[in-house]
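Bug report (template v2)

What were you trying to do?
Predict the complex of my protein with thymidine-5'-diphosphate.

What happened?
Run completed; filing so the output is reviewed.

Input:
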Amino acid sequence: MDDRMILVTGGAGFIGSNFVLEWIAQGCGPVVNVDKLTYAGNRGNLAALEGDARHVFVQADIGDRATMSDLLQRHRIRAIVNFAAESHVDRSIGSPGVFVQTNVVGTFELLEAARAYWGQLAGTERDAFRFLHVSTDEVYGTLEKNDPAFSETHRYLPNSPYSATKAASDHLVRAYHHTYGLPVLTTNCSNNYGPRHFPEKLIPLVIHNALGGLPLPIYGDGAQVRDWLYVTDHCAAIRRVLEAGVPGETYNIGGWNEKTNLSVVQTLCAVLDRESPRADGRSYAEQITFVKDRPGHDRRYAIDASKIERELGWRPAETFETGIAKTVRWYLDNQAWVRSVTSGAYRNWVAEQYA
Ligand code: NAD
Ligand code: TYD
């Protein structure tokens, strides 16, 4: 336990909220949680921390440098963990501007605030300060079937506005280390899944649609491959990198779990058939529907997570089977949460996207 505060951005979103809840539950110390509360951010994700003095929530934009500087100074922040981002590839295709604004300009403003703050620290406070930037494997582009998995030295070849803006932010973070010496860490993680995942992404969307008797939309032929990691494994990896990662280094994080989209959806249907059978006794798999492919759809992502295992001793604790079972159970037990996030705005998005 370190009683100095860390600043988490985007901590009302999917991964950020899981990270904050675990950080506090494990007694790692207090948190200032900055989130703009876009459509993807939800105060309800943090309901368990209501009234808890170890959690200070601030609704703000990471691009608001003055507010970020003030928070860093006021709370004597020892580390920043930057989750805040626009994160959905499909939305980035229709509206790339907000991705540039938050993922690139927002990260830049946050880096500037961090650089000024860190610059006036001294001694052990200065040595211990960290800026951990949470990024994605999508910056590396797409792989062919038999290509080796992405290592940390793979070329950056982003293909969507989402991944291009994440790549740009990674480059800025890197430059702040090389130019100014800011003690940064970058993590590039594969696809996460688990509790509190917004139902615009494949796994929660399929669970939500299945239970609602709606089509389960599979883009193109469904043979695209993603490398799935249970969200608490990602959070554990971030804690480990924060604790022991070498400033200036990047760490790839993945689950060693490559699956085609079709097999992910079939697995979900099988688990749902068991845990919450359809009233007519038939399989949810009957709801699978192949729809128009995503433009520029990356064929395969796969992470080589051997560096973080070798250097920091991290490995995922969950298999895909245990993680999916926990995820389905969470959604079955938290239908009120699902109802609260599938508002009018969500329904408009779904109507437009799957028209
Ligand atoms: P999310 O969309 O669920 O949450 C993002 C959060 O950031 C939301 O709470 C939102 O309100 C907040 N936010 C957005 N713009 C902001 C701004 N300008 N200022 C402050 N807050 C803002 O995303 P997620 O899936 O939890 O992803 C978190 C991070 O992890 C992102 O940086 C993403 O690129 C990265 N990542 C995600 C995955 C994945 O599979 N979900 C995999 C690898 C990396
Ligand atoms: P997604 O969860 O959006 O994550 P990402 O695009 O960041 O990998 O999508 C995961 C995979 O599932 C991706 O290949 C696109 C596909 N997909 C579908 O087939 N149907 C859907 O309705 C969605 C949302 C995604």
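What did the reviewer find?
The longest helix spans residues 96-119. The chain is about 45% helix and 15% strand.
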